[in-house]
Amino acid sequence: MAGLSVEAEAEIQYLEAMIARLEAGEEDPEDFRVYRLKNGIYGIRGRPEHHMIRIKLPVGRISLEGLRVLAEVAERYTENRLAHVTTRQAVQLHHVHRRDVPKVLRAVNAVGLTTREACGHSIRAITCCPYAGVSPEAPFDVTPYAEATYRYFLRHPVGQNLPRKFKIAFEGCATDHARTPIHDIGAVAAVEGGKRGFRLY
User: Fold this and answer.
1) pLDDT tens across 125-176, in order?
2) What structural domains does the chain harbor?
3) Under 8 Å CB-to-CB from 134, ≥6 apart: which residues?
4) What stretches of 78-128 show up as alpha helix (H) in DSSP?
5) What predicted TM-score, i.e. pTM, was given to this entire model?
6) Would you tell me which of 12, 111, 141, 178 could form a disulfide with 171, CB atoms 3.0–4.6 Å apart?
């Protein structure tokens, strides 16, 4: 188990305090909306006490333990007991009651997953070719570069209040599995003069 980071625990405690103030009528709903979006928590139209939580799979990877935790929280905290896998390597849990959101965040953060910057005007999930590290056609494994980019931008101040969402993808194969041209930055592995690098789109 990765364990809950100090930063994640502080953010969850702050969210719990906001929820308590909101339910007591002491929190500005707009401030709550801004904070929850930064933390991957969407509102559900017509159901103000329920939320959709988007959980990022860092560079599209998840451990067996992470899969188990996602299954457990989906069964325990969602109305339909389902998890939705997105096209950009995330998992969404729909219809989670507000009181249960901090429990879900603690569970997923403890196994190395996060909801930070999963929505809102931020640098979103850093995605990666699903064949990275195993494809014989790739000139090199792009996973370490994608992971370094993910770690750099997670909670980084530069990516918190952008004019719009910003998406980055890494590809190593000749076949573009990551769909790099539709991202704001698409990095495709290339070797020139014996040196590793990327063609950027």
Assistant:
1) 999 999 999 999 999 999 999 999 999 999 999 999 899 999 999 999 999 9
2) 6-109 (3.90.480.20), 123-200 (3.30.413.10)
3) none
4) 101-109
5) 0.92
6) 178
CB burial of 156-166 (b: ≥16 within 10 Å; e: otherwise) equals eeebeeeeeeb
Q: What are the DSSP E strand ranges found in 135-194?
A: 166-171, 185-192
Element (H, E) at 33: helix 29-38
User: pLDDT (tens digit, 9 = 90+) per residue, 26-45?
Assistant: 999 999 999 999 999 999 99
Q: Helices 64-77 and 101-109 meet at what angle, rounded to 10?
A: 170
Contact 151, 117 (CB under 8 A): no
Residue 128 bridge partners (DSSP): 170
Alpha carbon distance 71, 83 (integer Å): 8
